[in-house]
């Protein structure tokens, strides 16, 4: 279960006092079955939550929802909402804080805790690869703090060519993408991403971050990731696939495959990305049992050339010549 969803559920409970599975499902955009499972998980994490049956029922925190806990530190409050890793389970720091959190977050910590909930997105897939657990880079903690507090940072940075630069940025959020971590920030040149393992220094200022009102870290990262994928894989082959071949394509191409709708004859429209027309044609040539490529022209031409070479090398006439030689 995702730690960020668990924290959001806990915040709902302390704010409303009582919630139903339907309300949780609607607020967190999950199924009611998942909502009930999440509510049960709160109890397993040490939070005294109980259910009331019948009319006016739902889930409540034992003793009410408005008592502050003097034992909860600011760091633990942040840990409740900040997912520092692949976000597939609750961190030890968050579990310790959950045991203390019975009814409500202390008022002084609430604003930063809620900011932490929107400060970090984890994307476990590497570029064109399967899930890889990210390793925190050196300056991760130093950058998380100004993201949460909403202050600008003087950033030392070394680009891919080894050139050292310095600039003041508006940190908006942090993303883990496969083994790499990125800072999403506003700059004089617009929104940019910085690999955190290339950061050489972090010097927070007292100046507030200029955060766009409609900014959403998850949505912004999807746009960034899509643009990077388009640059890495600029060639798009369009094709139709037999329904039983979709699984084969998913295994072979992973995130490079986009599955569309069904055609009139029951086949499925697909788009497969690659970085070179000839290489992509080579990958597609062995899938003729499932796939009919419809474009672009360059990929079709390479497929035809590959077919010609295969016939010349392995066709009936060539096989007859080999038999005669024997």
From TrEMBL:
Q: Which Gene3D superfamilies match?
A: Winged helix-like DNA-binding domain superfamily/Winged helix DNA-binding domain
Keyword list (alphabetical) reads: DNA-binding, Transcription, Transcription regulation
Q: Which segments constitute the HTH deoR-type domain? A: 2-67
InterPro entries named among the record's database cross-references: CBASS_pafABC_assoc_protein, DeoR_HTH, HTH_11, Tscrpt_reg_HTH_DeoR_CS, WH-like_DNA-bd_sf, WH_DNA-bd_sf, WYL_dom
Task: Write one Pfam family the protein is assigned to.
Answer: WYL
Top-level taxon: Bacteria
SMART domains per record: HTH_DEOR
Q: Which PANTHER family match?
A: PROTEIN PAFC, PTHR34580
Q: What is this protein called?
A: WYL domain-containing protein
